[in-house]
Write a structure and sequence with these properties.
560 residues; alpha+beta; ten-stranded mixed β-sheet; 18 helices; 18 strands; 40% helix; disordered N terminus; binds flavin-adenine dinucleotide
Length: 560
Amino acid sequence: MTNTQQNYSTDFSYKSREDILNTLQSEHFDLVIIGGGITGAGIALDAASRGLKTALVEKGDFASGTSSRSTKLIHGGLRYLKQLQFHIVAETGRERKIVHRLAPHLVVPEKMILPVMKGAPEGKWMISFGLWLYDMLAGVKGNDRKKMLNRKQTLEKEPLLESDRLKGSGYYAEYMTDDARLTIEVIKTAVRHGANCINYVAATDFLYQNRKVSGISCKDQITGKEFEIRGEFVVNATGPWVDDLREKNGSLSGKHLFITKGIHLVFARNRLPVNHALYFEIPDGRMIFLIPRGDITYVGTTDTPYQGNKDHVNADADDREYLLNALKYLFPDLNITASDILSSWAGLRPLIWEEGKSASEISRKDEVFISPSGLISMAGGKLTGYRKMAIKVLNRIVRNLKKTGEKHIGRPQTKNIPLTQERFSDFAEVVEYKKQLIERLGASGLDEYYADHLTLIYGKQTDQILNRMEALKDSDPEKRLFLAELEFCIEQEMVVKPLDFIERRSSRLYFMINTVKKYYPDLLERFRSVFNWDEETLHKEKQIVESRIREVSETNPPHN
Ligand code: FAD
């Protein structure tokens, strides 16, 4: 089967929900995927681009699980070196390059500094060797290869670092992304290749024929309507929920998940004015990231076992204190306190349990489980490896299809499928585009940092947003931009609820929370008119938005 991407409609909005729901109920699929995080999205794209008839259901919004709550790095996993997992470093290193090529605006190079402090267990030579090996395994070339900086060179780049204990640093290359955007772009690309993907539809049970899984029962979370989807293969790509579905399938035995929570805190860039991303060791031996993005800097993460409600995960007071102490250790003079926190997020790692290992020691590797009734579950893994994970799942399916001789499935195509329709040819073009954007935004009275935001989040789709913005009438350009982004996401990205936009399509709840606080009444008005909300719905949604703003920005959240 061949790839027929150009022929499919790109209308992926609430207007097409009814059609998608009808298709899901009336057709028989090759593959039914449960879960619309990066894992499910990647599998949908791989399957649809090889010509498989593909369905995907997500119980909340796309990326509403872990895939909007990571450190947002596409990285080779320096920590794997410590665990001597060289093949993972090599594989994720190769994947970084591929995903950067497929979406150069969304997976962007980021230089990292790894400070070497006096008394740290790994000295400068060890770090130099580790980074050399890291570059070599990941195939890093030219100027991107690591450099070791002495104390003076390090302080020139990062004057804020505590000079008394600093011995020098490693200076090396990683990539930064926006995880929820990566997920939605992969979903949109899968849809362009013919996949039927829908959010706010939960898989409630499995259907069986001759003791083999033959589909799923579902519930539309918006209308409450229940229906069934039938398919040859069913894939459980539900991240932290993988074992819940294995249990429903009666196949939760042997290996199982171990869930840990990781949080991030967001500060104004001028309170934590670092020039580069930093990766540093704190006194308990754990490594912490500090990443500048636009006019904020975010810090993470924690790694603690979690047994609470998986649908409602937030940073609590202990988590915050842990990261605030880490900042105190690295930048004692900045006096960063809880009142400096602008926003935060918390996510769950779906790790595969390993006997006798602590949360931080457990490998982040992925694994496919196949139940006796044929349910395929993809567990563990990372954002960075989503494409390879999809190939692993599809390999199992292809093997099976070959056995039955039912279908001929082609080789994986995703290495060469760009993740947006209007694509940048390389990163140099992204930089040029951003320069032009700064001028265009300046003419509308908008600050330069919006160019960073728009380029990373929407890429060349920004042109459509700015055209919309220019057509809107309001004296406040920031509000016009906010509403133009909202319109674009409602019409092209299956936004159904306010949080879909502020939290996952635009990431404004984390990185520009002040604009959310200022414009959410306008956003709710827009929803009211587009979705025909009555007063009761408007009131309910207003409370949801306000409570979410409080959750992420509260300076004194409860302890665990
Ligand atoms: P999820 O994103 O959780 O998606 C699963 C989806 O399934 C959810 O959206 C859920 O709503 C849905 N679902 C559940 N049950 C049902 C049902 N019954 N019906 C329908 N849908 C259902 N990786 C990196 O590569 N780089 C990083 O920098 C990085 N940092 C991280 C930092 C933290 C703190 C954490 C927690 C993880 C990090 N990771 C990172 C790992 C990465 O984020 C995850 O591996 C990845 O996002 C998992 O994606 P997923 O699709 O498997 O799970």
